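Reviewer 2 asked us to include a model.

Predict the structure of this chain.
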Amino acid sequence: MPARRFALRLFATLVILSPLTTFPALAQAAPSEVKVDAATLNKYAGQYRYDDEPDITLSFFHDGNQLAVESTRIPHTPLHAFAQDTFATANGSTRYIFLSDSSGRVTGLNRIAGKEELKATRISDQPQHNHFRAYDRKEFMIPMRDGVRLHAVILRPTDTNEPMPILMQRTPYGVDESNSNSLNARYTELAQSGYIFVMEDIRGRFGSEGQFIMNRPIVDHHDPASSDSNGIDETTDAYDTVAWLIKNVANNNGRVGIMGVSYPGFLAIESAIDPNPAVKAVSPQAPMTNLWIGDDFFHNGAWRQSYGYDYAIGLETSKENAFSKINGDAYDFFLDAGSLAGDIKKSGFGVLPTWQGFIDHPVYDHYWQIRAVESHLTKVTVPTLEVGGWWDQEDMWGPQAEYFALKPHDTHSEVFMVLGPWNHGQWARTTRFLGDVNFGAATGDQFRAQIEAPFFAHYLKDEDTFDLKDTASFQTGTNRWMRYTAWPPKEVATKNLYLDADSTLSFTKPTGDDATTFTAYTSDPSNPVPYRKRPIEATYAPTGSGWYTWLVQDQKFLGKRSDVATWQTPVLDKPVTITGDIVADLFASTTGTDSDWIVKVIDVYPNDPALGKMSGVELMIVDEILRGRYRKSYEHPEAIPANTPEEFKFSLHGADHAFLKGHRIMVQIQSTWFPLYDRNPQIFVPNIMTAAPSDYKSATQHIYGSAEHPSHIILPVANDN
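Predicted model (structure tokens):
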């Protein structure tokens, strides 16, 4: 979700980024310009294709006395000459260094942006324009039923007055930068096909009036006695906005589609709860759905410390975005601060509203339940396209949860889901990569052109090119799109993969007893397991945070830590394909009275130079945490009986992945994952948010692999395995 989720929240902010810009580059002081003659500028004009990203072609033009660059998704951008062969954007943050052979013929270029360097090969001396469609931009203050006015930017194609449908996004991240160029760069396929785009600041943010409330609770519109704030919530604001647009925007066709990623995804699905009749299609993409069970702020009761800290600062210390407040290694920052109470003291901001919510409501009580969306999805009111990424570092749970909530009510086959090889919002980009993992195609481009654009064209324009029946899933490992008539597909069968005491994995149930068949490790809260390589930057640090790709980071960075238990299969002699929900069913004990259990299922690549950067990599496929006190109830936590085997069963969520021949399947279990999750004191305290330094204790953990207590992973294995 850039701005909130600083770099990849492209839906949220419409910041114009190169399709290869993963992180916002730190602005550099621009060096003095030099003069370059016309003959040299002409020499550089042409088309250049990235070697590692062959789906992206840059065109350079001799533009007056300058060079300019553009592409299918980059607007015409003048460059400044800082050497005879080096040109850069105005602030110098992105540089293009042209390369020539011994004869002086230009052969390619290097593009340098921050820490990223990419090489492109010249493929033509004739540049091509991007054919961006021109849009007229207007701003309005749209009145809501309680008199509050919301700021909106409305963009309409200038080349036609034909009636058009409206595509709307509502966001807390600001819409001031929305213009014709940003629209074409971000929504390339949709912008060129023709819609009236509406971008609106939600109440209390940026140009909109009223009070901002984080993930504002949903009001029961059918029971006035239960309403607060005069019955106002995001569903009513969406309803009122649509009503105003239909009446006041000239030459609309009476149909509205609503879309958004992350927080705007949360707002998109809420627009389908008691929707305005003009809303005919919605696409919640990586939507924040349930902040306590599986999305941004908690996972199964474990608080996402660094994220919850950073995000509250970003949205609640200013009416505009205010991220990136940590200097140095976040691991040290949060370890020194301790619990949330210590974080607040160290921050200097006082107690922000969301932090107060964390402190007062550490359990899944009414405060969180009324912010959850899935319980309101009791009927299909609007055709819905859910979108998610397998390696979404923020909201991987949301799209699947909403799909499962809506699907039982889908009597007209109008609920669809797409799951791809992406991190948070990455389907907005043109790239074959996530980190070092190459998926062989620009899968985001494929999704937008083949599914997203046809979905809205079908329901808003009556075009007949949308052919998805239920779920499209990109199967990693084999790197191919799959289409299923249900998710999970009916053609899979579950198999138990057992965690044996000798650190191996087997599909054969163990036969030993508890006294001898277990794996033990000591978890020390004073030395927690880092969740990614250190130093750990602030979540949205402007200098290139590892936050965006940590889920595909090679797990070998953990070395041989004694507090990470590891099991793996022998080398596979044939592929094992898992498609559906993976579940961890652990039998474990602790010498403490509370514990976290983190389970990771990993694909271990063979050591093969032909694999390049992926040789020997340990790639996480699914992972999740369970805070032990919530093993029986999210509402009523209980201490864990010390030194007593207990069952801890929880979902690791969905996957569609083939462990290929020659690979291994690995499972790792640990009890800290820091500072992504706050440390469990490992003794039962009433409220971990206010735990004192003296509360944190080491504990010895036992994972059993016996006949009576056979810890295992439940895998949905395809029938052809």
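The mean pLDDT is 93. The two ends are 37 Å apart (CA to CA). We have added this to the supplementary material.
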